[in-house]
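go over my protein:
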Amino acid sequence: MAPRPADRPPPIVPHRLLPGYPAPDDWWRVPATGQHYLDAGAGAPVLLLHGNPSWSYVWRRLLPVLSPHVRCLAPDLPGLGLSPRPVPPPSNADRYAAQLAFLDSLFTHLVDHRRIPPRGWTFVMHDWGGPLGIAWALRNPGVVDRLVVLNTIGFRWPPGYRLPLSLRSIRGVAAVAALAHLTNAFPRAAVRAGVVHRLRAEVRRAYLLPYAHRRDRGAVVEFVRSIPRDDDPAWRLLEPPEGRSRLARLPVFVGWGMRDPVFTPLVLDEWTRRFPQARVHRYADAGHYVMEDAADELGRDIRDFLLETARR
């Protein structure tokens, strides 16, 4: 089914320009929304939720390690990657609610039409994937059995945390946001500042291809402008009156790039405080894109966690 008339269609990106990305045989779309996702492997469902300004390309080095053991489902968030560009709602809370509604559509499609079981899911969450994944899991108790946390947040910013100046400027100054949209500055900076080990030119190009045209970049800036302040009503999606205690008892793996300029060790400390049972791996020579800088080690560590905590 085509995207809704109010949405811009997804960008067309040739597979030959995406080194390491799964073949188009693994590419799928949610009929109701047009949302693009990868479906690779067999076994227990593992949903990989990326952040901004990345897309499912960020998982390409983990998929070969995980897909022989589990079924990897890696969507592109609406507005990013190879998914359609929906018209953004006016408020932060509405934007988060819209993203959660897209996750609802994806889940329904996977269960009803792709024979994915409605229970026993693992969420692998990075950057924006954290708050969206945690909020969705809290709204749908009993679906998620395990959490994998990679340089993200799932709660209010901890005391003493300060967002980097570049993100604060895009979030708070309309002229800076407009310039970022015009120049594609945030994705261009992310593929360099987000890693410790320089990415090859063709890999940087692949990350940026979905945002090559101005018409396809709107969500990149909107996600930054949606980063909640301390008093933002959107935090309520992560603070339901009940349900968080169920997540707190789940098996949790935390894999953290310790040289991340955005999700600093202060944020990691809050994860370990809230999930004292978590298995924590700190990757000293990795940045925000820990799945790039520490791909081999991280892939093995996540695989081992999934196999050791699998239902018998």
Q: What stands out?
A: The radius of gyration is 18 Å.
